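User: Teach me something about this protein's shape.
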Amino acid sequence: MLWDVTADSEGPTNGAVPTPRLVLCAVDAPLAQAWRAVAAGRPGMTVHPGSVFDLDVDAVISPANSHGWMRGGVDAQYAQVFPQVEQHVRSAVLALHGGELPVGEAVVVPTGAPSPAWLISAPTMRTPGERLPADTVHPYLAARAVLRLWRDGWMEDGTPVRRRVRSLAMPGLGTGVGGVDPDTCARQVGAAWDEVFGG
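Assistant: First, the predicted structure itself:
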């Protein structure tokens, strides 16, 4: 069974929607510092100066490419830890988007593990290994896609994503292979949070 939704899978929210627990993860000091600045004053956001694999969360976020290949950066680690997840992502991208998930969209798929049970793939680049320009807005677009999917998306069985996924671990979006400056990434994630949750 294929579990997937896109960031545009809208549904009624019936009033105020609480925010998820978003854990911003950093394995290096510059990103951890940038995350701390953006998390300050935003309830629901916390910072973990370590790997996404250290945490007990419902979902991890994959700063993927549009084709769903998971061969570099943290995606390669996800593919190693969750052997079926790349095929799940590729199948979802093919089924929902004809083989290419645009930057600004996201899908959620099972990891095949008890925890985290889900992986949210949100491309930060179109092609694998793409170096992003200094003025990129791709971290913002990827973060917004993840947060909109959490707020408005539906699983295949009709369950709102936010009921299954209450906590998420987010690594840097484009800060590894993509070369995005940590401060740029953090500011854009903060802007996406504020837009989606009215901060």
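Now, about its shape. Confidence is low (pLDDT under 50) at residues 1-14. The chain has one domain: 21-197. If you'd like, I can walk through any region in more detail.
User: That's plenty for now, thanks!
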